Amino acid sequence: MNDLTTKDVNEMHNSLRPNARRAKTAITLIWVILILDIFSFISAYLQYGLLYAPEISEEAAEANDLRQQIIGGVYLVCFVISAVTFIKWFRRAYYNLSQVDSYVSYSSNDVAISWFLPIINLFKPYQITKELYQKTKQLLTENSIESSVKLSTSTVIAWWTLWVINSILGQIALRLARNTNTVDDLLLSTWLDMASSLIGIPLALLAIKVIRDYATVEPLLYEIQSEDLKIESAMT
Fold it and tell me: What confidence tens digit (pLDDT) does each residue in 198-209 have?
C-alpha cells in the first residue's frame, strides 16, 4: 500500500472543512438563549401576577410593559444570531459528511433552506439531522472507529419534538398578544409565554447536546477519508 502524498493530505483537509469553532459558537449562543428563557419566564410570571392584582397602577403597568419589551427585544436579537450560527454549523457538518459519504440525500443549500420553508421546516431539518447522525454512526462502525460519544437519534427526536411544540406555542402566543381584547386574552397569552419559556430550557440543553455530541465525533471523519485516500492511492 502506497503512503499518502503531501498532495493527498492537502486535498483531504481542503475537502473536509473545520467546524469546531462553529460548533462552539452555536453552543455559546444557545446558552445565552437558555438564560434569556429563564428571564423571560420570570418576567411573564410577574406579569401574570400583576394581571391578577385587584388594582394596577399606571406606573406598575408601564414598568411591566417596558420590562417585557426589553426582554422580548433582546431575546429576538439573540435568537436570530443563534439561529444563524446554528445553521452555519449544521450546514458545514452536513457538507463534511457529504465529502466522506457521497450518497447523502441533500445538498448543502437544501440543508440551509429547509429551515425557512413553511410546513417543510416542521420536519425536513429533523430528517437531515437524523441522516447526519445515522450515516456518521454507520461510517464509524464500518471503519471500526471507536468514539467516546455514541450518536443517538433518540436525542434528535426529543430535541425536535420540543422544538416543534415550542414553535407552535410561540406562534399562538404571538398572535394572541397582537389581538388581546380582554384581560383573559392577556392572561392566556402570558401563560403560553411562560410555557414556551419553560420548554425552551430543556430544548436548549438538548440542542447543545446534539451539537456537542456530533462535534466530538466529526473529527473522526478525517480518519475515514484518510483511509479512503490510502485505498485509492493503492489502486492507482
Answer: 999 999 999 999
Other beta carbons within 10 angstroms of residue 67's beta carbon come to 15
* The three cell numbers locating residue 224: 475515514
- The cell for 165 is 411544540
In order, the DSSP letters of 170-197 are: HHHHHHHHHT--SHHHHHHHHHHHHHHH
**132 vs 95: CA distance, rounded Å:** 10
Residue 5: per-residue pLDDT: 46
Span 117-121, average pLDDT: 93
15 vs 10, higher pLDDT: 15
The 10 Å Cβ neighbour count of residue 31 is 14
Cβ–Cβ < 8 Å for 90, 34: no
Is the full-model pTM beyond 0.85?
Answer: yes
Q: For residues 78 and 230, which has the higher predicted lDDT (pLDDT)?
A: 78
**Residue-wise burial string across 131-155, b where 16 or more C-beta atoms lie within 10 A, e elsewhere:** bbbebbbebbeeeeeeeeeebeeeb
- The DSSP-derived string for 125-155 is HHHHHHHHHHHHHHHHHHTT---SS---HHH
Burial of 85 (0-12, 13-18, 19+ CB in 10 A): buried
pLDDT in tens, 85-99: 999 999 999 999 999
pLDDT at 178: 78
C-alpha grid cell, residue 141: 462502525
CB atoms closer than 10 angstroms to residue 201: 16
Cβ atoms of 192 and 45 closer than 8 Å: no
Are the C-beta atoms of residues 189 and 180 closer than 8 Å to each other? yes
